[in-house]
């Protein structure tokens, strides 16, 4: 486990700057500047790469329109999607999706001719319902599709709910699932008919285990501790869907909740803090890059557990909190502001089920990095999924029939479109 000392500037610089941040000072000699200028000019002499980028854009647009139409048809027929593996799910495992994603990333970075930029970005916005009025810069100033996708917004575009007893959305996207983790297994529903373990998503060394067990009677803990617990490998604990203790045995002071939000390609791609909290640990899982559209969610087992992801963990005034940024096809790049040198979807990295994740503890140990509600913490290239798992207050009254009555209430519904800063849930003071 590596330790990482962070000295965040105040205020924080943009996560993906289209121009050099005033907080960053670079030295460069005229020779280097000239070489970089020549490289930029060379990009304009790559009509093949530019054409390939536009073709990929068209294919992605057509696929999205087809998938959206299928969703509409199912809703009109009243069909609720269920888990049903098919041949395509097995076929995807044979494709080099990580390499394809790196190639797509290279195409995304190709500098587009200035006169073509507004037309291409406006076409993308129409296809994926992006609001170009929110962009912080004129369209001509985004040199590539990647710079456009990870664009920042004008100040005030995402007002943050100031209620101190409110948890807000960290991203723009569609609410897929939410609820309370209660009972043996603490499973998160992927789709009707299949669920995955929250502990598998976050990892065997997650603080979630301690959060769930902190109030268990000592004798109960000892009785339920298997004799060979220390002998279990990371593979057996993390990949084999570990079970947490039954929530009905815990203290009624806290509950553990989750929320899953999917980001469409046209959404704003930066991740913001949902509350004031301290990021203590980062965990990077090198995994597959399966797509995360409706079809994939309904056909690929453990989709979010198998895909590459970065988990940020820490604590807030009410206890444990974690944000898992899950990668997807063409979204292998996940950026973390407090650790800009982190690289995901690296060429040559192995994908083994028993491979432990790369961990980093932010110093000072136990405190980490303090972030305020609404501040940027990470970001994606294109669309993907964010899963939040967190503790929140529950009623201090006696539990009814062995269940905890929660003071925390979600104020969203599955299928809702939500934006950064809008309330996900509230609790009474």
TrEMBL record:
Pfam families: PS_Dcarbxylase. GO terms for biological process: phosphatidylethanolamine biosynthetic process; protein autoprocessing. InterPro entries: PS_Dcarbxylase, PSD-B, PSD_type1_euk. Pathway: Phospholipid metabolism; phosphatidylethanolamine biosynthesis; phosphatidylethanolamine from CDP-diacylglycerol: step 2/2; Lipid metabolism. Is synthesized initially as an inactive proenzyme. Formation of the active enzyme involves a self-maturation process in which the active site pyruvoyl group is generated from an internal serine residue via an autocatalytic post-translational modification. Two non-identical subunits are generated from the proenzyme in this reaction, and the pyruvate is formed at the N-terminus of the alpha chain, which is derived from the carboxyl end of the proenzyme. It catalyses: a 1,2-diacyl-sn-glycero-3-phospho-L-serine + H(+) = a 1,2-diacyl-sn-glycero-3-phosphoethanolamine + CO2. The active site is at residues 172, 272, 384. The modification Pyruvic acid (Ser) is found at residue 384. Its cofactor is pyruvate. The keyword Lipid biosynthesis applies. Binds 1 pyruvoyl group covalently per subunit. The record marks 383-384 as: Cleavage (non-hydrolytic). It comes from the Eukaryota. Residues 67-429 are mitochondrial intermembrane. Residues 1-47 are mitochondrial matrix. GO terms for cellular component: mitochondrial inner membrane. PANTHER family: PHOSPHATIDYLSERINE DECARBOXYLASE, PHOSPHATIDYLSERINE DECARBOXYLASE PROENZYME, MITOCHONDRIAL. Catalyzes the formation of phosphatidylethanolamine (PtdEtn) from phosphatidylserine (PtdSer). Plays a central role in phospholipid metabolism and in the interorganelle trafficking of phosphatidylserine. Belongs to the phosphatidylserine decarboxylase family. PSD-B subfamily. Eukaryotic type I sub-subfamily. HAMAP family: PS_decarb_PSD_B_type1_euk. This is Phosphatidylserine decarboxylase proenzyme 1, mitochondrial.
């Amino acid at each position: 486990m590596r330790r990482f000392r962070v000295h965040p500037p105040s205020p924080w610089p943009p996560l993906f700057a289209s121009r050099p941040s005033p907080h960053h000072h670079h030295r460069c000699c005229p020779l280097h500047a000239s070489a970089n200028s020549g490289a930029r000019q060379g990009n304009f002499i790559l009509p093949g790469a530019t054409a390939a980028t536009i073709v990929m854009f068209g294919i992605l647009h057509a696929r999205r329109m087809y998938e959206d139409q299928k969703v509409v048809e199912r809703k009109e027929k009243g069909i609720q999607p269920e888990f049903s593996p098919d041949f395509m799910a097995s076929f995807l495992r044979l494709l080099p999706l990580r390499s394809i994603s790196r190639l797509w990333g290279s195409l995304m970075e190709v500098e587009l001719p200035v006169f073509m930029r507004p037309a291409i970005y406006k076409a993308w916005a129409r296809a994926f319902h992006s609001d170009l009025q929110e962009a912080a810069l004129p369209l001509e100033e985004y040199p590539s599709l990647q710079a456009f996708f990870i664009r920042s917004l004008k100040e005030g575009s995402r007002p943050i709910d100031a209620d101190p007893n409110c948890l807000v959305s960290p991203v723009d996207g569609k609410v897929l699932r939410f609820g309370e983790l209660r009972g043996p297994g603490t499973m998160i529903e992927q789709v009707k008919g299949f669920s995955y373990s929250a502990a598998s998503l976050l990892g065997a060394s997650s603080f979630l285990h301690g959060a769930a067990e902190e109030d268990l009677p000592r004798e109960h803990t000892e009785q339920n501790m298997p004799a060979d617990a220390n002998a279990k490998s990371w593979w057996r604990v993390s990949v084999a869907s570990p079970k947490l203790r039954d929530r009905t045995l815990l203290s009624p002071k806290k509950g553990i909740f989750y929320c899953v939000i999917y980001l469409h390609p046209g959404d704003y791609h930066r991740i913001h803090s949902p509350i004031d909290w301290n990021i203590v640990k980062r965990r990077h899982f090198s995994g597959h890059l399966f797509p995360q559209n409706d079809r994939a969610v309904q056909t690929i087992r453990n989709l979010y557990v198998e895909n590459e992801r970065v988990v940020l963990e820490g604590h807030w005034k009410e206890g444990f909190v974690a944000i898992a940024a899950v990668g997807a096809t063409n979204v292998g790049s996940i950026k973390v502001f407090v650790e800009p040198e982190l690289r995901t979807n690296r060429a040559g990295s192995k994908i083994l089920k028993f491979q432990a994740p790369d961990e980093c503890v932010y110093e000072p140990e136990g405190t980490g990095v303090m972030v305020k509600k609404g501040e940027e913490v990470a970001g994606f290239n294109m669309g993907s999924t964010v899963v939040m798992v967190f503790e929140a207050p529950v009623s201090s009254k006696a539990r009814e029939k062995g269940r905890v009555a929660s003071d925390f209430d979600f104020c969203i519904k599955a299928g809702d479109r939500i934006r950064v800063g809008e309330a996900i849930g509230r609790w009474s003071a």
